[in-house]
Structure formats: structure tokens, C-alpha cells
Amino acid sequence: MRQGLKYIVSSLLALSLGAGPVLADYRAATAYYARRDYISAANAYFQASGYPKAPGEKERSEWGLAQSLTRLGFYYSASKYYSVIVRRGPTQNNVYFVKALEELGRINSTINLGQSHIVQLFKTRIDPSLVPQQAAGFYFYYLGIEAFNQRKYEQAFAYFQKVPNGPYLIKAQFHMGVISNLRGAHSKAISYFERVRSSADRGEDGEWIREQANLNLARVHYEVKRYRDSIEYYAQIPRNSDNWLEALFEAAWAFFMMQKHNNTLGTIHTLHSPFFENRFFPESYILQAITFLRLCRYSAVKDSLGKFKTRYKGVFDDLARVIEKNKADPKGFFKLVYDYRTGSLNEYRRAWAILDALSRTDIYKEAGQTMRFADNELARLSRYSSVWGRTGLQDDISGFLRNKKQAATKDAGRRLFDKATGYYAYLKELSDQTIGINTEMVLGRVDSLRAQLKVGTADKKANFIGGLQELNVSQDLEYWPFEGEYWEDELGGYVYNLESRCGKGEDNGAAAK
Amino acid sequence: MIRFIRKTIDCVSVARGAALAATLCFGALAAEAQANDERFAGYEIRVIRPRFMTKSNRVELGGQGVFILNQSFIYSLMASGLLDYHFSETLAFEINGAFGISIDKQDKTLLKRDFQITTQILRTSYMAAGGFLYTPIYGKTQLPSGDVVYFDSFISAEAGMTGIAYDYAQCVAPNVDKPAAVTKSYPSAILGFGQKYYVTEDMAVRWDVRDNFFVYQIADGSCNPSVPTGTDLHQNVTLQFGLSTFF
Fold it and tell me: Nearest CB to A477: which of B45, B50, B56?
């Protein structure tokens, strides 16, 4: 009997020592955390949150688990548990609500949690007066974004106005600029964008938003017909940016409106260089054609329209196939863009320009970032499988990360697909325009066609050299003739050297027939 | 088609470009005047942009290693410094000076050791000169890495002094008094050419090949320098390589 009792006692003791974390409670978890053994602490907190032994222990364990994961650099994984706390709302028992909201804001400002995650998070409506100052930026900014995406601009503006000083202020001001412009308050929009430009930091995020502000400033100035100012802002987009060609293309329109036709054509020359054969600027051929039209160079007009057809007929056909095949498969569509970006796609070659354009969108980049961060945490997770595998923590986190990846892929795939169908419609519209221009020319209605091109007044004072730069008389210039070779450093610097033939009777409308 | 070849423009183009810019400043010509410029009459498309490297009214300070190429029995290694003032993109005034040492080649050592032949050698100890640099070519080239590097090519004409160190090592006959070692200076003229490759807008890698020629008294190196024996022409062909900075 005594022997038997001794056996039972020693067995229980061995079990409790050998399988410590399995039977760990909240106190043990706290002790691990205090010793900075975050791996064991996370495990113990996870277990304690599943089997709370006292009131409030579940919430405290969730907080401890999220904190332990944060300390280990598992930010996405930690966001799962912070989100659980936040979604419970600011109740009296939810003592970690404020802190969890702050932590999520912090995580989101370093690694993007993703729009869908945050939308889910804020489905729980919170009394704005209860939102702590430290979390107000994160909270109001995303409410603003949600309203903005639903085109509720007044509401969005009101939310953005509540964003206090901090990492979200600059993004909020940027959106306030966009909304002001949509309201027609151009000066106000310019003021917001200028503020963003001047206060953006020098880091990667700062550069991105400064570039977006520059682009928007250029567009606002274009809209109010201040083409010279518009070009000045387009010129601020650096060559290594994904937006550089977009800026060049839009600047070409500004040149056109200023009747700087040699600059328009020179800028388009860069877009048509072999370096950018997979970039998608179909409208540049239309702009080129109507610029030649303004110069009464009708054979060149026909040539541009012909080039548009040659280049984009195949794109149009392949794009139609891509859309047809993927219309019910957003994940498949995302994978297609991903395969293009990683160089492993061998089909739909003629639609690569579209896939390239899609792969340069923020939608794709954000999803890619989510996948990269999630994959990184999944890979690191396997290192702790011997500890976290026993309690189910590993399965819990990996399930969350996989779902996050899937949701990001699906959401991005859907939005990218919508964009692709937009490109399809755009190409069709441009194709119709080329037919229209051709028809008018063949019918000899060149004058009426030219009259339709409502360009601005020629600015005689403004003189531009290549690279969207105004002629600065104190600067020495260098000239490089284009002799059929494209040099990478010359891209963006071309200027044409053509005179108008209008009224000279050499290449007239009749010749175009 | 993309081809990567060296591309150059001549200085006349650049000079005209600058002149045109100045004219436009006063509104005498419209922008279209650029298009009408006869240099580009044959080109439908050209690149016009601010010049990458501007030298006008800038000071160039440089250092080079100098190696005299045409010496049979010695190696002459020198360090030189140069100071240029660029009046324009094409014309600069330069002063430079080089000092160095000579090391006997193995041939000379063998001749002395095995055949007791000692040679009379002109050992250049310094060169100092001033003159003009004319830069007719400004161009660019693409490196295998894909980077484009701008360069210019220049010719130089200078005048100065060259110092020759005589050690009278050949004066070993028992009945001859060996004169004390001395350095004598001769007026010299220098013609050269070279290139600068601009690493940045303030720094360039520079190389020069120069022919420094001067007339010297043959007796100056003989064991009896006081007996005139006529003159001779000597040339030092140098290869110089170094860095320049621009202020």
C-alpha cells in the first residue's frame, strides 16, 4: 500500500516537472515572461488562455501571449491576439483594449496588416471619446480609409481630420488633399499635398508618399491648366521609381496642352523605347498621332495609329483570354501576376504589358508584402515546433498566417482582376479612337479633327529641354543626337526637332488619303 | 535595337549649346530656334539636358603617379601634383610639378658587375611646367557593368624646367677626379594628351601621356664638366595616372 502511494506521488511529480509547459498556468507563464523566456511564456500563456482558472485570466493570458510573440518578432502572429482583445471592445473588463489598439497601430506602421484585417478589426464600433490618444491615429485613419473606399468623402474627411500628430497624420493629410480635389477645392488640395511633401520623412515610406504627393500636385495643376507647374512636379519623380514612366506620359499630355509638340514627341519617344517594351502606355500612340496631327504631318499620324494596332492587337486578344480564364478565380489571377513578376510565366506573352502594369500596382505590392511577412513567420515558426507543437500554439498561429495569406491573395486577385478588365475596356476605347481619327482623315475632315483637340494657349515664355526641365540659361547643356541607338542614361531626355507643316502643303490631308 | 557603343560629341556642339542658351536668356530666339540649329538639321530626335560635367571657372587639383617609359637602364618613378584653372569647357591653364627617384634596372647592374661597364645616365629628378590644356572631345562610354561614364580627351602644351641628377657613377678610372653629384636644370617643352573619366561631378580619374623634351649640355654629365662638348636633345616620355578633384 505504502509502496503504491509512493509510486503515485513520484509519478505525479515527474509528470509535473517533465511536462512543465503542458500543465503551466498563468503564474508560470508570467514567471517565464519575467525571465525573458518568451518562447515558453508564449506557450504557457496560450495554454492558460484556453483553460483560465480565475476571472480575467483569459484576457491577461491573451495579452501576455501577444506580448511574448511581439518580443520574439512574430508581429503578424501577435496581431491575431491583439485583434481578439480589440474586437471585444472597450468594456470595463477588457483592460488591455487601449494597449492592444496601440500595439496594433505600431505593428501596422511597420508591417502592413492589410486592409481586410483592419476592416474586420473596426467592425466593432467604438465611442470615439473612448479611443485613447495614442491609438487615435490608427483608429481614425482606417475609419477614414473605409469611408473613402465607400466614396463617403465627407465622412472620410471628418475621420481624417481627427487623426492626431503621429505616423498616420501624413497619410490622412494626403487623403484630405485627394478629397479636397474631388470637391473642386484645388488650392486646398495643393496645400495638403505640399504639407505632405514637406513633412514626409526620408525613409522608404516617406519617399513613397512624397512621390504620390508630387504626382497628385502635378495632376491638380494640370486640371487647373497650370501646365508649367504640373511639369515641374512630374519632373520630381525619380527615374528609379515605378511611377517615372507614368509621370513622363502625363507630362507629355501637359506639353501637348502647352503646344510644346517637340517635347511631347520626345517624351513619348522614351515610352516607346525597347527598354520599356513590356510597359503599358497604349494611349501614348494616340497622343503621338494627335501631336503629329497638330503639326500637319499626316503620314506620321497614320504611322502612329498603325503602330498602336500592331502593338496592342495581340495584347487585346491575350488579355481577353486571361480574363475569360480567370473570371471566377481571383487566387489564380493573383498567381498569374505573381508568376509574371517572378519570371516563371511562359504563356500569354502578348499580355505581359498588362501583367507588368498590374504587378506595379500598390494592390499587388501590399499583397506581396503580406505574403512575404507571413511566409517569414511561418518559416520561423518551424524552429519552435518542439515547444509550441505540443500545446497547439503552432497550429493556431500557422492557421492564422495561412488564412491571412489566402485572404490577401484572394482580395488582391479580385482587385487586380477588376483592374485588368478596366484595361481591356480602355484598350477597346483607344482602338475606337484610332478608327475615328483614321476615318476623319480619310474623309478629309482634318481641320475639324484638329479643332476637336482643345489644346491650351501656347506658352511662348516656357522653354523646355529634355527630362521635363525648363531651360535654365545659367546651365551648360549637352546635346546627343539620336541615331537609332537607345542609351539608358538618355531615356527621358529626348526632344524632337520637327517643324509644323501646317499651311506648307507638303504633307496635307489629301496625302493622308 | 539597342547598341552600346562609345558616343562622343565635339566641343563645338557644346560651345554652341551654351551660346544658344545665353541667347535664349534675353528672349532673342524662340524655343524653336533650337530646332532650327543647323547642327541638328539632320537629326529628328536628340537629347538636350544639363551637362553632366561642367569645368568652366573651376579649379582642378590632382595628384598622379608618373612613370618615364623610354629609359633603358633605370626606372624613374615620380609623384606629381597639378593645379588647373578651367577658363571654359575647352581651355585650361595648368601648372604641375613632379619629383621622384630612379632605380637601376637589372641590365645596368649586370653590365657593371659582369663587364665593368658603367653607363652615363640622365636621371630625371624633377619636372615643373605650366601651360595650356585644350579639350576638344567630351563623350561618354558604357562600362561592362552598364554604368555610363563621361569623359573628355585633351591635349596639352607646356613649358618649364626639368632637373637632371648627375651622380657621375661612370667616373671610376683611377686618373679621373669624380665630380660631386649635382642636379642641373634645363628649360623644357612638353606636349601631351590624356583623358579624364568623371567618377562624380567633382572627381575624375585622369591619365596623361607626355613628351617632355629638352636640350642639355653633354659635358654636364661627363667626368670633366668644364670642357664643353656640345648639346643634345633628350626626351622623357611619361605615362601619368591619378585622380583630380574639382572645386
Answer: B50
